């Protein structure tokens, strides 16, 4: 191993060689600036190069940041790798895992053995169980009628399955017990199968949300439910989840009755529809949810096909706009119990923000629109095969170096690519901070005759999969400005509410697939997220699913859900008096 | 009125005239001894007659008891009428009513009115309800999905229906709310419809237990359930109850959804079968019930057709043999909280006894057999039309004066008639205390050639409805001895357990239709119940149904149910070392 490493000339290669995959789309030329690392003992490497001084900011250089492709170790070197420098597929769902929650699910298995009741004893078998456990347990009715199967007249020996204060099954054998966590996204539904004794994730299954046929987005589904009732939407999601549960059970040879709990998260509309509640009040001011607190519902009442006595726990939502996905961020990061100030950003069609610490938390929802997911842009697309997901522009030629999903020929630009593109256009000077595209004579910047708009050609049609030039237009830039402006307005108003500054933020958590895949430096450059030192920024991945899993596995965290919700003040941005001024101000690029 | 009264010659007539119906089957001849009253100011009436001295015991005379048919008031007279002297249809279900329970059902109705939620408020409608009530209520899932119907966007105005800590309905209007109490007897099922706000009984409906087709008695139904499963029996009782609920609702123009709770009592086998639990463990030693504690089950889970979010409360049973009917006696009488010693006797096929006070209670079940219900006797019959229910034998002629149910021609003898008959045979000297029928030359006492048994002719065939002499035989007497011996053995063993004597008993409660209809004096004479002064003996009527109604209407009593159960020691008579000796000793008539 050492020999192999010794032959390498730069730190980037060494890291790749030992299995740490670092981003570098410019081909290790010191141009794209993706491969940043922090050197703890600077004397162990060559001096900072001229190229690095061009790419890195003064603050970055002061804090020891180097581009790993230009670092040559001279002796044993000690480095810190920012999360944002890791290749996307390697990024860690940070604290959700690193917090190392204690595996203590609400579903408990308890083996008891009771000798033959004494003649003349007036106690029932059920009372013997409680006496043995020194408890006052109740028993679910569907379980009660199975008690005879567990009673043997010489000895009462059984494995009790207990949820909270209720017996929900009596098992003869040492069967394993399972749980299910469901993340009900507007677009995608993900179901995780979890071993409740080890906490291990056995398997995962996902489908497109079957409600798609009633409307692609939340608004159209709410409209459908107001016109035709919520029943169609409700049954389609329940049916979809049941189908996935069955698939997971079949594939893993698991009896559906050995699944005793399911936890579910979703945004507020998905939450109401899952519960078969018409989301009418979410669609009219003041957007009051019917119910927000966490719920425990018998699986049979919701028609969820796990053990009929099992529990379905629906995680609480925070307000009419901020759902359980945001709660997932809080559970995964522990934001709500830290002394330090943290900001959590979950960007989708709406951006949900939470800012605060254990003493006070404020949250808001920003109407970012779909631009940051690639929507509403001329060549925007979802993050699927052929989407340009990261990009670097050569300053002189304006040629683009980019990476597409699956390394296919480019078909369009997805969210993370859009952010890179804008940041690079700013860097190479073909976009000013008002959002105007600046012509410099390069053929890639041109005026489109059909719409009289300036546009920048990202890739020529010969090299694309769609037979058209892939461009970004002035109106695309405007969409992106509106989106990032909405988010930053939210951040600024929340900061004002707590009377703090950007510098007071100790942690910035980026949630969702989006947060996981964007180039953090570029997101800062375009002013989408506040300018905060890299080491304070962490991607928390799929916070919604993570929250559902944490809730399934941790009794302690479950108990905290409703407490967390109550501690958060929801700020309705549109009703803040300085909203308009803040918003207009936020449209500019930094 | 006074004029009318002044024309009457005796107290019996006066009492009947003012509406107090006193028993007197000998035609006011001072012979049957049924019309006893206690005169508080003896000087206000004529002196005790010779006839009364023949009929009354020395103790009765000493305590001021007279036969009202032979009392002529001389001035204003103050009397006490023993419960046992009232005509059967008038007998009061004493303390169940006289305790005057507070009407405070577990189902509560709570009107709330909440103004339009403020814009920017992060609370859900559900939270507004809890804030308004300063509570932490939960909501039933089936109710949650109806919440939208109750939400008006200007004001949230609704009548909440609450059970324990859970909202189970939201009513727009001031609809009335109802409850149901069910007494599941082996033979008869009675359903009471109760107004939950006033506590008034609206209506009552009864049917023969539809399980009859699977077996007439408890043992045959248990056998059926062991062979073919409990499902048939369970569904037939649930179906029967649902049918009666529907009938009651139709007849009283009540929406089935306005019934929010049902309370149910039954003996232990009826209890298990109602719950769909195979009563196997009740049929084998040590006769341990599967569950004894009180249960609350969602109506929809039990398929009881009241409001689907409503509660079905199944009262606890005391042991494998002592059911919720006996608990009814305790609830109705308050035995369990008195300082005085009380004995409760509930006689059916089994006799259940409870003896004790607030400090200690012991209970047992006595295998009395069906003789005291008219079963297993040559001319025994259930208490239906044509049954001789009370009887008086003229000492010289041995002619019988009797009363039949509905005053029909006699068809047989029911329980209360059997007790009278034996007591009268003892009194007139044609039965000795060993149970031997004594011939005295009267043609009514004869030897039956076909079975070589002595028998007494109660009525000649010419006067019966069945064209046969109605007789009581030596073997009938034996059956009655076994039955009353079983009861008295139980009483004696319980007395020994508490180390007290008959004289220490301050109250004797007789439960059940049987306890309500027997001639208490005669029951004492034949040694069926202990010899206790009449004023200490009270009929508590249908204790099972009474218990179910009390449980429905009184939150306080409901809470005490499981506590009462735990305070009772169950004595398994057959395993007591002095059982055999006691039993043989108890066979003799006093």
What does this structure look like?
- The structure is a homodimer.
- In chain A, about 30% of the residues lie in helices and about 25% in strands.
- With about 600 residues, the first copy, chain A, is an alpha/beta fold.
- Among the domains of chain A are: about 1-80, Ubiquitin-like (UB roll), CATH 3.10.20; about 105-170, no CATH class; about 180-315, 2-Layer Sandwich (Nucleotidyltransferase, domain 5), CATH 3.30.420; about 370-480, no CATH class.
- In chain A, the strands form 6 sheets. Chain A has a 6-stranded mixed β-sheet with strand order 10-9-8-11-13-12, sandwiched between helices. In chain A, strands 24-23-14-15-16-25 form a 6-stranded mixed β-sheet, with helices on both faces. The first copy, chain A, has a 4-stranded mixed β-sheet with strand order 4-6-7-5.
- The radius of gyration of chain A is 27 Å and the shape is globular.
- The interface between A and B is large, with 51 and 51 residues.
How do the helices and strands line up, and which of them pair or pack?
Two copies of one chain form a homodimer.
Chain A: H1 2-7, H2 11-17, E1 36-39, H3 50-55, H4 58-62, E2 65-67, E3 79-80, H5 94-98, E4 107-115, H6 125-133, E5 138-139, H7 141-144, H8 147-150, E6 155-163, E7 166-171, E8 178-184, E9 188-195, E10 201-208, H9 218-228, H10 231-252, E11 259-266, H11 268-274, E12 295-298, H12 299-302, E13 311-314, H13 324-333, E14 342-347, E15 351-356, E16 361-366, E17 387-393, E18 400-404, E19 412-413, H14 415-427, E20 445-448, E21 453-459, E22 470-473, H15 474-498, E23 507-511, H16 512-517, H17 520-525, E24 537-541, H18 543-553, H19 555-567, E25 568-570, H20 579-586
Parallel strand pairs in A: 5-7, 8-11, 11-13, 14-23, 16-25, 17-19, 23-24
Antiparallel strand pairs in A: 1-2, 1-3, 4-6, 6-7, 8-9, 9-10, 12-13, 14-15, 15-16, 17-18, 20-21, 21-22
Helix pairs in contact in A: 13-18, 15-20, 18-19
Domain 2Fe-2S ferredoxin-type (chains A, B): 1-85
InterPro entries (chains A, B): 2Fe-2S_ferredoxin-like_sf (IPR036010), 2Fe-2S_ferredoxin-type (IPR001041), Beta-grasp_dom_sf (IPR012675), Corrinoid_activation_enz (IPR052911), Raco-like_middle (IPR041414), Raco-like_middle_sf (IPR042259), RACo_C (IPR027980)
GO molecular function (chains A, B): iron-sulfur cluster binding
């Amino acid at each position: 191993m050492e020999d192999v490493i010794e032959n390498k000339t730069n730190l980037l290669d060494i890291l790749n060689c030992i299995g740490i995959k670092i981003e570098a789309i410019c081909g290790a030329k010191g141009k794209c600036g993706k491969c940043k690392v922090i050197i703890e003992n600077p004397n162990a490497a060559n001096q900072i190069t001229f190229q690095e001084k061009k790419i890195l900011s003064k603050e970055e250089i002061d804090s020891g940041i180097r581009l790993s492709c230009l670092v040559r170790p001279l002796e044993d070197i000690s480095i810190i790798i920012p999360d944002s420098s890791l290749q996307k597929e390697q990024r860690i769902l940070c604290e959700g895992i690193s917090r190392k929650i204690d595996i203590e699910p609400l579903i408990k298995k308890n083996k008891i053995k009771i000798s033959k009741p004494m003649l003349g004893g007036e106690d029932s078998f059920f009372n013997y169980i409680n006496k043995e456990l020194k408890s006052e347990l109740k028993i679910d009715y569907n379980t009660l009628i199975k008690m005879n199967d567990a009673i043997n007249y010489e000895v009462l020996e059984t494995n009790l399955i207990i949820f909270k204060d209720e017996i929900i099954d009596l098992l003869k054998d040492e069967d394993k017990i399972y749980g299910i966590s469901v993340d009900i996204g507007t677009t995608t539904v993900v179901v995780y199968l979890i071993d409740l004794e080890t906490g291990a994730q056995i398997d995962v299954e996902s489908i497109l949300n079957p409600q798609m046929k009633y409307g692609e987005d939340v608004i159209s589904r709410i409209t459908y439910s107001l016109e035709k009732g919520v029943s169609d939407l409700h049954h389609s999601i329940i049916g979809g989840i049941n189908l996935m549960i069955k698939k997971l059970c079949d594939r893993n040879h698991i009896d559906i009755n050995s699944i005793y709990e399911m936890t579910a998260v979703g945004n507020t509309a998905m939450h109401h529809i899952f519960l078969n509640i018409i989301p009418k009040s979410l669609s009219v001011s003041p957007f009051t949810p019917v119910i927000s607190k966490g719920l425990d519902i018998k699986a049979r009442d919701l028609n969820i096909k796990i053990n009929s006595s099992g529990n379905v726990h629906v995680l609480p939502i925070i307000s009419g706009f901020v759902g359980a996905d945001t709660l997932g961020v809080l559970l995964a990061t522990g934001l709500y119990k830290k002394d330090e100030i943290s900001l959590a950003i979950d960007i989708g069609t709406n951006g949900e923000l939470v800012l605060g610490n254990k003493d006070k938390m404020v949250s808001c929802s920003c109407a970012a629109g779909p631009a940051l997911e690639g929507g509403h842009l001329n060549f925007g697309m979802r993050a699927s095969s052929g989407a340009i997901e990261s990009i670097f522009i050569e300053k002189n030629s304006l040629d683009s170096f980019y990476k597409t999903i699956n390394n296919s020929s480019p078909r369009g630009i997805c969210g993370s690519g859009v952010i890179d593109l804008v940041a690079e256009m700013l860097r190479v000077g073909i976009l000013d901070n008002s959002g105007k595209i600046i012509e410099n004579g390069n053929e890639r910047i041109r005026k489109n005759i059909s719409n009289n708009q300036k546009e920048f050609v990202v890739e020529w049609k010969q090299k694309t999969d769609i037979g058209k030039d892939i461009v970004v237009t002035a109106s695309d830039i405007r969409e992106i400005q509106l989106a990032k402006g909405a988010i930053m307005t939210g951040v600024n108003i929340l900061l004002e509410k707590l009377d703090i500054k950007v510098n007071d933020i100790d942690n910035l958590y980026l949630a969702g697939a989006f947060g996981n895949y964007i180039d953090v430096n570029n997101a800062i450059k375009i002013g989408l997220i506040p300018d905060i030192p890299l080491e304070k920024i962490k991607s928390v991945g799929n916070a919604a699913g993570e929250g559902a899993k944490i809730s399934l596995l941790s009794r302690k965290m479950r108990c905290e859900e409703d407490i967390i919700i109550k501690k958060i003040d929801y700020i309705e941005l549109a009703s803040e008096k300085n909203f308009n001024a803040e918003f207009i101000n936020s449209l500019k690029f930094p």
